[in-house]
Structure formats: structure tokens, C-alpha cells
Amino acid sequence: MKVRSTEIAEHAPALLGNYRSPFTGARGADNPLVWAGFVLSNSETGAGAFSIAPQLTVQICTNGMTLTRHVLKEVHLGGKLPAGQITWAADTHTAALDLVLKKARDAVATFLDRDFVRAQLAEITADASAPVGKPVETIEHVSRKLAFSVEQQDTVLNHFLVGGDPTSGGVLHAVTSAAQLQADADAAHGMERVAVKAMGLAAAHATGR
Predict the structure, then answer these.
(1) What CA dihedral angle connects 77, 83, 87 and 93, to 10 degrees?
(2) Does the global pTM surpass 0.85?
(3) Minimal CA–CA distance to 38: which of 97, 113, 103, 100?
(4) Which of 18-22, 72-76, 99-103, 121-125 has the lowest average pLDDT?
(5) Could you tell me where the beta strands, DSSP code E, fall in the chain?
(6) CA distances (Å), 113 to each of 64, 106, 178, 201, in order?
(7) pLDDT above 80 for 159
(8) Chain mean pLDDT for the chain
(9) Residues of the chain with pLDDT > 90: what percent?
(10) d(CA 26, CA 147)
(11) What is the rounded CA–CA span in Å between residue 47 and residue 45?
(12) Which letter does DSSP use for residue 20 in this model?
């Protein structure tokens, strides 16, 4: 589940100034707003776990950048303890669940804070200006490192070229916009989670780091 707040926004002209939405052609230079938000994911393996990760959304194209470095992962359902181990009292389970809820509350409050958004944008922008002189080679390199499918790689390359930002930041935008075209929700979620990493890979490849 994605939650975004249009009331908590920051301008990101350095990150979006040269970008064009591949969906509408709208220019980031005209409205370089980024919204705060977060993604809530629940375990599908019966582990009773969930995670909350901050996600920044670009207004002009609704590209979502998930910041996995700050993810909060918690177990919300106590699993059965092996025989012979401690038997937890009911109030202990209640206290443990209450702690999980409070940590989730604090994470959300942090992710929906303007200072937090501003700091994350500054970090992202620092890696976004590396020029990508060989887009085909760079996108192939990034796709190989991140195990993108051939179809995903082709979509990312197309969006990079249409997006008009020939930098590592343009690779970030291309991955997040390509994620929106994935028919499978898990695939889209996965691309959004590695988009910032894709930018870093592109920057390193472009500069020979």
C-alpha cells in the first residue's frame, strides 16, 4: 500500500530541471515538486512481518522513489515458541505489539517530515548529475546488475531517451517511470525499490568508479 502526502512537498529543481515525463511530456522545470510518503508491505510467507519504507513521489509523473536504506521491518504477530522455551504472558505479547505500533508511528512521522524529505533529496541529487554518454551501454550495465528482464531493460532505455535527462538522475527517473508500466505489482514494487541504486550504478559506470 502506498501513501503520499501532497501537503508535504519540496522543490527539487536540480533533480528535475532537465526531466520530461514520458507519459505527458510535462517538464520538471515547470513544476519540480516532490511529495513525501511511504510504502507499507506485508509478509506473504506467513512470517507475520511488515515493513514501512519512505517513498518520494515526483508530482509531474507520479514516479515513486522508495528509499530502502531507511526501511523499518517489524514482526507484528508473535510466532509459536519451541517447546521448553519461555512461555510469554498475555501482557508481554500486548506490550510487544504496542512497541511495534509505536515504532511504526514514529517511522511514519519521520517519513512525513519536510526536513527528512529535504535531506533525502539532497542525498539523491548529489549522485544525479553524472553525465551518461553511452545510454545503451549504461542501461545494459544497470539492468544486468539489478537482474531486470529484457522487457524491463528496453522500457527503461526508452524512458531514459524520452525523458530527456542524459544523466544518472535520468536513469533514476527512467526506472521509476518504467515501474509504472509493469503488469505485475510485485515487479513494479521491486523496480521502485532499486531505482536509487540504479542511479548510483549509472553514476559509477559513467565516471569509471
Answers:
(1) 0
(2) yes
(3) 113
(4) 72-76
(5) 2-11, 33-42, 49-58, 64-66, 72-75
(6) 17, 11, 27, 28
(7) yes
(8) 91
(9) 79
(10) 30
(11) 6
(12) B
- Closest among 141, 163, 152 to 192, alpha carbons compared: 152
Decide: 195 and 65 in contact? Cβ < 8 Å: yes
- Listed residue (208, 205, 61) closest to 136, CA to CA: 205
Q: What are phi and psi of 95, to 5 degrees?
A: -65, -40
- Cβ-contact 69, 195 below 8 angstroms: no
What is the distance, to the nearest Å, from the Cα of residue 202 to the centroid of all Cα atoms in its chain? 16
Could you tell me which residues are beta bridge partners of residue 58? 34
Angle between helices 135-145 and 185-207 (to 10 degrees): 120
Cα 195 from Cα 21, distance rounded (Å): 16
CB 85 within 8 Å of CB 116: no
Q: How far apart are CA 195 and CA 175, in angstroms?
A: 6
- For the chain, the domains span 2-124, 129-207
Q: How far apart are CA 16 and CA 33, in angstroms?
A: 9
Band of residue 175 on the pLDDT scale cut at 50, 70, 90:
very high
Band the pLDDT of 79: cuts 50, 70, 90: very low
